[in-house]
Amino acid sequence: MATSLSLAPKPAAVAVAAAAIPRLVPPPSIDMSAPSPPPPLVSVSRSMVAKHKAVVVMGATGTGKTRLAVDLALQFGGEVINADKLQLHRGLDVATNKATADERAGVPHHLIGVAHPDEEFTAADFRRAASRAAAAVAARGALPIIAGGSNSYIEELVDGDRRAFRDRYDCCFLWVDVQLPVLHGFVGRRVDDMCGRGMVAEIEAAFDPDRTDYSRGVWRAIGVPELDAYLRSCAAAGGEEERARLLANAIEDIKANTRWLSCRQRAKIVRLDRLWRIRRVDATEAFRRRGGAANEAWERHVAAPSIDTVRSFLHGEFTTAAETTAAPVPPPPLLPMFTLAAAGAGV
Question: How many structural domains is the chain composed of?
């Protein structure tokens, strides 16, 4: 992420309406099918070295990775290991979209809020921490489920250190995908929802007028650099009309940068798909709908097929060498770079 911000072109200012949108939280009535007898969570490779099994849930921002990870954990006795580089840090829980207690549904989550807000937590740091977490989860007889949108960190975990993780784990890669026009519409509504849940106030409470570097730690989160001009205007007792204009512009920039980030993340997954045999799950229909219909579509199009895939994986019916069942997905179209602020946010 670049230190200085270049917010051009700026979208037109709009009124800030914190429209409440339905959260995609599985209702208690969701039928995940009766759990089958627990399969062995280890496999034997061709070299006859026993491997544990792990699931990796990937996807662009806002596609429901955490929700699917929780669905799988509840079904198979798993624990979630966070792979979002910003959620590794303490603070800014709304801006970084950390899962709430309700969304976690009692499933243990690891590597959330473990680093100081200013700490530089590198991909290599993540590889070491996630490897330790996965080993501890597997030692308890549970299924490690790595979930997050920081694909460079996931790549470092899987292929870094001479592929040591692959030597210890047979991995099932799942990609929660949403058609970009549908996802981008949802992203705009989610930003409004985050504002309604206190994101602006949260960032304002952490604002330091002496801070000009937004390239480290939790301060890389989309929303922090975009609100800088607005918060400086408030600190300088700027006029009410000017503050309203700056806030509206900042929120539009947050939406634009989040959409841009989703395109970058998706393009990275398309590249990794050529290396890892990732199994794509299309969640578009769930994002087109609202309320109970959205939950029903999630169960039918995302949760159920993913559970079937992981069940087959755990029973040894396919391995990471198996061909992906999804048709090749073309990379998304390149979008104009609205700002450099999102460059390190989560790819």
Answer: 1
Judge whether 180 lies within some domain: yes
44: phi then psi, degrees, rounded to nearest 5:
-115, 125
pLDDT of residue 30: 47
Measuring CA to CA, how many Å separate 322 from each of 19, 156, 277?
44, 22, 7
Confirm if 171 and 55 have CB atoms less than 8 A apart: yes
Q: Report pLDDT digits (tens) over 247-278.
A: 999 999 999 999 999 999 999 999 999 899 99
Name the pairing type of β-strands 42-44 and 50-59.
Answer: antiparallel
Q: Is 11 exposed, middle or buried (0-12, 13-18, 19+ CB in 10 A)?
A: middle
> Would you call 222 helix, strand, or coil by DSSP?
coil
- The Cα–Cα gap between 8 and 86 comes to 25
Are 95 and 224 in contact by the 8 Å Cβ rule? The answer is: yes
Rounded Cα distance between 34 and 306, Å, is 15
CA atoms within 13 A on the CB side of 161: 18
Helix (H) or strand (E) holding 181: helix 180-196
The verdict on residue 293 lying in a domain is: yes
Phi, psi angle pair for 142, to nearest 5°: -100, 165
Residue in the block written with tokens 């580089």: 85
* Domain of residue 293, CATH code: 3.40.50.300
CA distance 214 to 199: 17
pTM of the model: 0.80
Complete DSSP assignment for 271-316: HHHHHH--EEEE-HHHHHS-HHHHHHHHIIIIIHHHHHHHHHHHTT
Cis bond leading into 144, ω under 30°? Answer: no
Q: What is the mean pLDDT of residues 66-74?
A: 99
The answer to whether residue 11 sits within a structural domain is no
Residue 146: helix, strand or coil by DSSP? strand
Distance separating alpha carbons of residues 1 and 344, to the nearest angstrom? 5
Domain with 321, as residue range(s), is 42-184+255-344
Q: Are 36 and 312 in contact (CB under 8 A)?
A: no
DSSP category for residue 100: P
**Beta-bridge partner residues of 115:** 89
> What are φ and ψ of residue 271, in 5° steps?
-65, -45
